[in-house]
Design a protein that fits this description.
lipid-binding; six-stranded mixed sheet; 2 domains; DegV; Hypothetical Protein Tm841, Chain: A,domain 3; DegV_C; Rossmann fold; 11 helices
């Protein structure tokens, strides 16, 4: 039986211990601060260090995707390490938010003798990190490429994500929402409950006044679909994690939570959503877990 190897990028915001435990290869994106200093996401810049630097930065950092050559190098290393009978599932940030998927697709064509399935998850952060973890665990249990692909398709259909930002400033400056919307939201102290469309673009699923009400509404939106089902959840926060326990208590009081992942929103996604953002992703829990 051929082996399935999972490759992803750093915007999945995976906890380091799980990357190692599940043998996941992560290709880093980059963050460049206004002073011209560039870092590799998760390699020489941790989430904690990023938010500290952000407090004194003169402007919003810019982000950039890996080059096709970097992906080509990774794929060739997989071939050398695991052999040609390996299938690579390469899962990436929404192509509507980054050129990472396109870079991986270009690289795939340059690697001979290895089956590589490059996937645009149409998600960001732990919204697809949760899927990466599930597939890595499934592959590690011995599932073949077809079974992994079927599970991937099921997860893409059935998983959901919502997030709440402290300020719309970062989304506005990065071109994700209009300036007028950001200004109006700030003036009215409105908190949009954001999600991703089927095409992988940010949209407002609802809006309420105040962050606490926004979190409760986010919980209600998820309950419409998952309340009676066993689920795995991730809570991902941009900055200090004081709020994660409160959010987890809320989720556990509503859902049949079988597995929990806590993580930080990393530098690349953090540059787009800003500090204080709270994201919750929910996916089905499978019987073979």
């Amino acid at each position: 039986m051929s082996r399935v190897k999972i490759v992803t990028d750093s915007t999945a915001d995976l906890p380091k211990e799980l990357i190692e435990e599940l043998d996941i290869t992560v290709v880093p994106l980059r963050v460049t601060f206004p002073d011209g200093t560039t870092y590799q996401d998760g390699v020489d810049l941790t989430a904690e260090a990023f938010y500290e630097k952000l407090q004194t930065a003169d402007g919003v950092p810019k982000t950039s995707q890996p080059t096709p050559h970097e992906f080509e190098t990774v794929y060739k290393q997989v071939k050398e390490t695991y052999g040609e009978d390996t299938t690579v599932l390469s899962l990436h940030l929404s192509s509507r938010l980054s050129g990472t998927y396109q870079a991986a697709t270009i690289a795939k064509e340059e690697v001979e003798g290895l089956h590589i399935d490059v996937v645009d998850t149409k998600r960001a952060s732990m919204a697809f990190g949760l899927i990466v973890l599930e597939l890595a665990r499934f592959a590690q249990s011995g599932a073949d490429a077809q079974a992994c692909r079927e599970r991937l398709d099921d997860l893409l259909k059935k998983s959901r994500v919502f997030f709440v930002v402290d300020t719309l400033e970062y989304l506005q400056k990065n071109g994700r929402i209009g300036k007028a919307s950001a200004m109006l939201g700030s003036l009215l102290k409105m908190k949009p409950i954001l999600s991703l469309t089927n095409e992988g673009e940010v949209y407002a699923a609802d809006k309420v006044r105040g962050k606490k009400k926004a979190l409760l509404r986010m919980n209600d939106l998820l309950a419409d679909e998952f309340k009676s089902k066993p689920v795995q959840v991730s809570v991902c926060i941009a900055g200090p994690h004081e709020s994660s326990e409160e959010v987890l208590d809320m989720l556990k009081g509503t859902f049949d939570v079988q597995q929990v992942f806590e993580s930080s929103i990393g530098p690349v996604i953090g540059a787009h959503v800003g500090p204080g953002t709270i994201a919750v992703a929910v996916a089905p829990m499978y019987n073979d877990a």
